[in-house]
Amino acid sequence: METVLQWGLYCITMILIPFIYWCIDEKKCLCVGIPILFSVWVGLINILAGLLVGGIILCSYFFVIRRGLLRRPLEALRAAYSPRAGMLASAVLAFIMILYRPSPELLLPGGMILGLGTGYILCKRHVGFSAAVNREGAAKYALLLARFVLGMAGLAALFIVTGKITDLFIDSGNYDLIVFMRFVLLAFWISAIAPWLFCKIKLASNER
């Protein structure tokens, strides 16, 4: 039963985070996605604790952040620190999570946090992807659907290919590192490579 719940957490993570990033708002994905990944990490250690942490994060988002109670402090914090600080913070959080328990099943959240943070900064600096769509009605939802389907197809292909590569190192002393880098790459696809592709084929606007 616990294994089924863990796979459920994996699947939800790999669908929800790309959906938010590509179709809703890439900035909100970074702000919401990293706490989600942290709660998934807790959930993989203990399902009940993960649900509790996830519930607290969800309630905090809707009742505190969405109501604007922390808007000014958060804006001041964002203005005070450079994008490099955000990238460094995501790296520190990822490696703290790894050091706690470096087992393969717990490497997805930490790897994705590092990949999301790094990809987001590079995407904003060199790609300029924006999830916003300047269309209305059916055209808007058709574009978002095309973006999501294409992105998920690429993510699925990358997941399969990297899984086969990872299996080659299953008896290696570097297996955990290979697993970690697999999830970094998957998150980098979500946050940088897929957005670059969307901009190239006119499925997204380029703010640069």
Query: What summary fits the major beta sheet?
Result: 2 strands, antiparallel
Strand arrangement, major sheet: 1-2
Helix/strand-derived category reads mainly alpha
Write down the overall geometry: globular
Write down how many β-strands occur, each being a DSSP E stretch of 2 or more residues. Answer: 2
What number is the mean pLDDT? Answer: 80
Helical region count? 8
Q: Bin the helical content.
A: over 70%
Tell me the series of helices and strands, N- to C-terminal.
HHHHHHEHHE
**Beta-strand percentage?**
under 5%
Radius of gyration: 17 Å
Distance between the termini: 48 Å
What does the secondary structure layout of this molecule look like, with pairings?
Layout: H1 2-24, H2 26-45, H3 47-65, H4 71-80, H5 83-100, H6 107-126, E1 129-130, H7 137-168, H8 175-200, E2 205-206
Antiparallel strand pairs: 1-2
Helix pairs in contact: 1-2, 1-7, 2-3, 2-6, 5-6, 6-8, 7-8
Write up this protein:
By secondary structure, the chain is an all-alpha fold. It has 8 helices and 2 strands; from the N terminus they run ααααααβααβ. The protein has a two-stranded antiparallel ribbon with strand order 1-2. Helix 2 runs antiparallel to helix 6 and helix 5 packs antiparallel against helix 6. It is globular, with a radius of gyration of 17 Å.
Key structural traits:
single chain, 208 residues, mainly alpha, two-stranded antiparallel ribbon, 8 helices
Structure summary:
The protein has 208 residues and is mainly α.
